[in-house]
Amino acid sequence: MSHQPQSPFDLTSAEFLRDPYPIYASLRRDLPVCWDNRLGYWFVTRYADVHALLRDHRLSSNSLGDWIGRLPTAEQPAAQPLREILTNRIVLTDSPDHRRIRSLMQLAFTPRRVELMRQVIQTYLDELLHKAESAGNVELISQVADPLPAHVIASMLGLPPEDHHRFKNWTDEIYSFMGVSAEPLTQRARRATEAAKQLREYLAALFAQIRARPRDDLLSGMVAAEEEGAKLSQTELFSNVVGMINAAHETTTNLIGNTILNLLRNPDQWQALVADPSLAESTVEEGLRYESPIQVVARRTLEPIEVAGITVPANQPIALGLASANRDEGFFSNPERFDIRRTDNKHVAFGGGQHFCLGAALGRLEGQIALATISRRWPKLQLADSQVQWRPFPVFRGLAALRLSLQ
Prior knowledge:
Layout: H1 14-18, H2 21-30, E1 33-36, E2 41-44, H3 47-53, E3 59-60, H4 64-69, H5 80-86, H6 97-105, H7 111-116, H8 118-135, E4 138-139, H9 140-145, H10 147-157, H11 164-178, H12 185-212, H13 218-228, H14 234-265, H15 267-275, H16 280-290, E5 296-301, E6 305-307, E7 310-312, E8 317-321, H17 322-325, H18 360-377, E9 382-383, E10 389-390, E11 399-401, E12 403-405
Parallel strand pairs: 2-8
Antiparallel strand pairs: 1-2, 3-5, 4-12, 5-8, 6-7, 9-12, 10-11
Helix pairs in contact: 5-12, 8-10, 8-18, 10-14, 11-12, 11-14, 13-14, 14-15, 14-16, 14-18, 16-18
């Protein structure tokens, strides 16, 4: 490689986890395209470049080999169950496989099916808020933001309600392997592989029950598609059920928690929402932009690509900085201000192009209902602790906990 600008920052450091945005700003200004030696990725941070590359067919989303290939050769055979549970996951595939799998899975997220979940969301949210009030102390993530999307996606799929948290634990371990962390990759891979084994065993038993007695739910439809053979392979069935559970859960949990945090850190914005809960829709969009639940997405170059005057060679891993793009002063007016009345908010929090998030409409609806309901029910809400702890995986920007006071 001729000219290879190097990132000087550690994107796994405690400083970065606390507040990545000054580092993103520095990269946008001085190194908008650079090689990160710690991550082993090219990193792109400006809005115009990220927006264009999300739609560029010279990039591949098939990055599973990158993750498995980073493991020591001796560790790779043991990780085979993990490879299988990730093979042909929709976010890791290119067309024509991507088009085939997406055409089936998007049936879960039609406008009609999403709208039918409105009452399910509202009823369960009211129950969660009542329980939190009764407990006296509110910890938003464990009591509201985490269980709500888990319940919703499980309801859509037809998963047993009592197993929601088992799924969350398993999929957390699998996604931690694919994230960025100071923890050694080998350790994460071993835990993720064990989770993949347990998850596959559980799903195999569940799918056997469905084959014996089909139901009127999404899982039954996916199992039927797998039985037909041409629409969905068995590996794809396992992989994409797991992917759907995690994506629908992780992003929405982070969206609700991050947005409530930023509302309460900006009391004028919280009071505006309390006064007018119809602002929940634009508040969700600003929450997605300002503290993006997914900070980066991974791709691989299929041929040399010039970005911001730098040529990234073919067959190189490249990370597109969604969160950095969403704070780009070259595109957004006053991007460091959290403004729930912001208009023309063309953020890239849900990606773009053929890989635009399938569950975006569902996540938006859950966020809107949660913010409108919480602002009506708890108008005097305040932070109980000014210090917050972020989860240690910077690919997913989310809080470990958020303690609140109802006053």
